[in-house]
Structure formats: structure tokens, C-alpha cells
């Protein structure tokens, strides 16, 4: 086909002009972008407390952790091209030594011999490698409107924070392959939806299919009755009234295909008693139930020890109430939580409720719950969890206002965890308790402003009638963190 000479001239003129326009539009991807870098040094020593009165208990896999790790995490959030198109790109690298246990930072190798034997001399499989890396973000971002009325759509590899899926609380970022849509209907109302079909946890280098087995079925010794969950999806609603700063209502529902569904409500309301004193009240409720082919396979994983119990589809729930007092520099918080999870009792969790949509290592969970401690989540069926904590800038008395110390204690009664071939009715109630301490110093100014040093000792104890098979034990743990964050 022949084009008239004038048409060719016009096309040439437009072709010469369009790249200039595109170059100007594309330039904003970088001129308006921002970067974040987080660097840290992490050391940890967790020692399982041996029970001399019960040698059999000491024959289970050794769960000590001894590690020293350096890590860097970097993220770039671009500006917008054409007023609506951007991208996010981020990842991490780490390296160090791990002579026992799993750090959840270095790459974990399920086929490597453990660095240390069990108490009975056998060598279990599974150990950290000396490195770790991961692509955390590689997604397109489409933005429309503004905070009063608008939406952001992200697609690709990304962390998800909407509905019943949310960020973890590790040193690195967990991520999905999927899509997240969040938008403001009004300045006070946000709605959102997310869908994902693959997941990468922070101790893995790749994105893998989501499964009904722990750690995505990557352990060759644990592949029986594995079920592949085709997708997760969740929707959320959040209301933050401007008339009451700090108040919120957060609602969410979620589903993992043929495995589990959940719904949650999280509310908070602050009461200002004086210019120096405020109390924030919060409440949280999650309802969940198993169901579908992947759930059936999940319960079959425990058929040899749970009496042949098939999928329990009754509703499980976790509820909590808490109050946080802020008086000048002193912060005090108290909480109570209750767990009802009879289905979890007969599952591979042996009594621990899943607040995520999948087994451990396959998806994140929200962290609104008040009963989260450093060493355990206090999620066993029947648990009545009491917590009390305080934090204060102790350095103020010495002219070091950024030196603070805190402590929090957790005490749970009614704890029900499953031993082999023992029914729920015949399981005695156990006691679980934990003490978490922390001392933190932050450099207040200068070139290293924001550099944080933190020491975090923790102590976890179970009563003697807590079953050995539940794969939890009394621990002494101490962590030391040096963390530096920079935005530019």
C-alpha cells in the first residue's frame, strides 16, 4: 500500500515529536521516584530448655537457633508516567552463619543435614545456607484520582496488605504473585481486593505454588497428601473518621481455594483524658473454617495420629480486647484473648489455629492480634490469654531520651494441644507463659540519625502436661539487632 507524500511527511513529523513527549513523560518515573534502604545485623541465640525428668521429650528435633546475619533490603517506588503509570522494584540479600535451627532470614535447605543432632543423637534434615536473597517487588502500579476519590492497582510480584492478608513482621518482606486494588470512596473510606496464586516467604529465593503443607511442600520428606491451592483472594473495608483521629473500623473476608475461608473485624477508639493522657481501646475478631478438597487432604496428613478424624468444618474463632494507656512518655497496654479452634486440634497444627489462610510458609497473616509474643503466637485451642506490657524512655533521666526499655508478659490457661492418639475430650489443659524484654537505643541526629540498636531477651515456658508431639517447647532466647533505614 502506498501513502501520499504529505501523509508520510506528517507521520515523520509526529514520529519525531512523540519520542520527545514520551521521554518527558517517562522521565518522571525517576525524577519523582523515591528509594528506601534498610540494612541490619541480626544475631540470635535460642536454647531449648531440656527436661531432665522426661528424656523422651528431648529426643525430638533440636530447635535451637544460633545465628549471625547481615542483610540489606532495597526498594524503589517510581513516579508516575503519563500521570497514572508507575512501578515498584525491590529485593534483599543476606549472608552470615547459622550453626543451629532456622533463622527465617537465610535461605533454608530442607535436604541439608542439620548442623546439630537431636538430643538422642540422630541427625535431622534441614539447615540454613550461608546466604539468602529474594525479589520482593516487581510490579506495575496504576494510580487514578487522589486520596479523596481514587484507586491504586498493583500487578506483578508484590506484598499484599488488604482484607485478611497483610504484612508479616520479619526483617524481610513476604511477597505474592498477584494483584492488589485499593481505593478511596471518600477521604474516610477505603475498599480493596487482592488475588494471588504464588508466594515467596522471606527465607526462600523463589515464588512457588501455594499448598496445604508447611513451607509450600518444599520438604521432600513431607509430600504425602499435598494439595495445591490455585489461588487466595481477599476483600477489605476500612473506615477512619477524621472527626476522631486514631479511630478506625477494619473489616475483611478471605478465601484460599478448596481449603479455608475467614472473616475478621478490627476496631479501635481513642479516648483523650487530658493533653498528656490517652487510652486507645481495640477489639479484634476472626472467624474461620476449613472446607474443600485441599482441606480434606490436609487432615489426612494427620490420619496416623488423630484417630482418623476427617475434616472438621465447624467455625473456629479468635477474639481479643486490649487497652493501651499513653501517659506522657509511659506506655502501658493490657489485653485478653480467647481461642476456640476444635478443627485445629485434629489438624497437623495439633491445636494451633491458623489465622492465615494457609499453613505456615504459604501466606502471611495480619498482626492485629493482641496475643502475639516474640517466641509464640498463643493460638492453641482453648487458650485464655492475658497480657500486660509497658515501655518507657529510661534514658531521659540520664540525658539520653532515645534510650527506652520495655517488658511484656503473657499468661495462657486452658491450652489444648494434641498428643498422638489422644482425643480432645481426654486432653488436659496446659499452661503457657512468656516474658519478652527489650532495650532500644536510636541515634537521634547526625550522619547516622535513625540507626537503631536493640536487645530482645525472651523466655517461653509450658507446663509439664503440654504434649511433646505438639512441637513446641520451653525456650530461652536473646536477639540483638542493629538496623539502619534511609529514604531518599
Q: SSE order, as H and E?
A: HEEEEEEEEEEEEEEEHEEHEEEEE
> Alpha-carbon distance between the termini?
53 Å
Number of helices: 3
Give the radius of gyration: 25 Å
Shape: globular
- Extract low-pLDDT stretches: 10-18
Query: Which strand-content bin applies to the residues?
Result: over 45%
- Count of individual beta strands: 22
CATH topology of the largest domain: Porin
Secondary structural class: mainly beta
Tell me what the CATH architecture of the largest domain is.
Beta Barrel
| Biggest β-sheet description | 18 strands, antiparallel, barrel
Q: What top-tier CATH class of the largest domain fits best?
A: Mainly Beta
Assign a percent range to the helix content: under 10%
The total number of structural domains is: 2
Family: Belongs to the outer membrane porin (Opr) (TC 1.B.25) family.
Signal peptide: 1-23
Keywords: Signal, Transport
Pfam families: OprD (PF03573)
Notes on the structure:
By secondary structure, the protein is mainly beta. Helix content is 8%, strand content 48%. The chain contains three helices and 22 strands. The strands form two sheets. The chain has an 18-stranded antiparallel β-barrel. It is globular. The protein starts with a helix and ends with a strand.
Topology of helices and strands:
Elements: H1 5-31, E1 34-48, E2 65-77, E3 85-100, E4 108-113, E5 125-128, E6 131-145, E7 150-158, E8 175-186, E9 189-200, E10 208-211, E11 228-229, E12 232-239, E13 248-256, E14 260-274, E15 277-290, H2 293-300, E16 316-327, E17 330-340, H3 342-346, E18 384-392, E19 403-415, E20 430-442, E21 452-462, E22 475-487
